[in-house]
Write a structure and sequence with these properties.
Layout: E1 16-20, H1 25-36, E2 40-44, H2 48-55, E3 61-63, H3 71-83, E4 90-93, H4 108-136, E5 140-144, H5 159-177, E6 183-189, H6 210-223, E7 227-230, H7 232-241, H8 246-257
Parallel strand pairs: 1-2, 1-4, 2-3, 4-5, 5-6, 6-7
Length: 259
């Protein structure tokens, strides 16, 4: 087990987890798993009907729709949770987007959409929750980045840099928040079978189901890990690639991807 840089979670009963980006994929699977483990779960995303369906018949689930690119909307969702009488113990920012792009197909409008969703949206969430977590002097925040943030990859001209920024952001947050009693989790999935990856026209090694990804994510939270990455064999391979000289790194990436 990796060294626990955060306080392990021994019991989910009585804890409230706010999952932003929970209408499908990893977010929805994580919400379902945490409900099964006894947590109260507030779920947020733009697609309100999917949130309502997830919450149906679940007395410990609350749908709080929002648009992560709209700071006012994120604050309103947090206020809805608080009006419900819940103390937010943990926030998981799972929302994100993907658009395959290479340099010869660069489009600024698509780049700005990803920057708004993957990066500025996360800062909107921080603006809404950091004062609460700091005032409580406890709790935690987890941000889903990606193994694509470890190094440059083909077709990730904008996606990769946004995820690299989130990796840097979580490291900085940990330095700032850990001394204040607030846990920080950097979450880096590999390929997961979701709507975002369904359109990929290349082989996706070690492809996981959302349910398997949720299991790995929650296990990392429970163990108090800062760096939660999965599947380990694939993610560790990408991390090791970064130790190579650039000449070897570029050669290996081209050989493996064929791009």
């Amino acid at each position: 087990m990796a060294m626990a840089l955060n306080k392990p979670v021994r019991d989910w009963n009585g804890r409230c987890v706010w999952i932003i980006g929970a209408s499908s994929g990893i977010g929805a699977a994580t919400a379902q798993l945490l409900l099964e483990r006894g947590a109260s779960v507030a779920v947020s995303a733009r697609r309100a009907p999917l949130l309502e369906a997830l919450c149906h018949g679940q007395p410990r689930a609350l749908a709080a729709p929002l648009d992560i690119t709209d700071a006012t909307s994120v604050h309103a969702a947090r206020e809805q949770i608080e009006r419900h009488g819940w103390r937010i113990d943990m926030v998981l920012v799972v929302a994100g987007g993907y658009h395959a792009m290479r340099a010869d197909g660069f489009k600024l409008e698509h780049a700005n959409l990803l920057l708004d969703l993957n990066l500025r949206g996360v800062y909107n969430c921080l603006d809404a929750v950091l004062p609460t977590l700091l005032e409580q002097g406890g709790g935690g925040i987890g941000i889903v980045a990606s193994v694509a943030g470890y190094g440059g990859l083909p077709k990730a001209l904008v996606y990769g840099p946004t995820k690299a920024a989130l990796i840097n952001l979580t490291e900085t947050l940990y330095l700032d928040l850990a001394p204040r009693g607030v846990s920080v989790y950097q979450i880096n999935p590999g390929f997961v079978a979701t709507d975002l990856t369904a359109g990929n026209d290349f082989a996706m090694p070690a492809l996981m189901t959302p349910e398997a990804a949720a299991q790995a994510l929650v296990r990392g939270l429970e163990q108090g890990q800062f760096h939660i990455h999965f599947p380990r064999r694939f993610s560790n391979s990408l991390r090791l690639l970064r130790l190579l000289p650039y000449s070897a790194y570029f050669w290996m990436v081209r050989k493996v991807t064929g791009l």
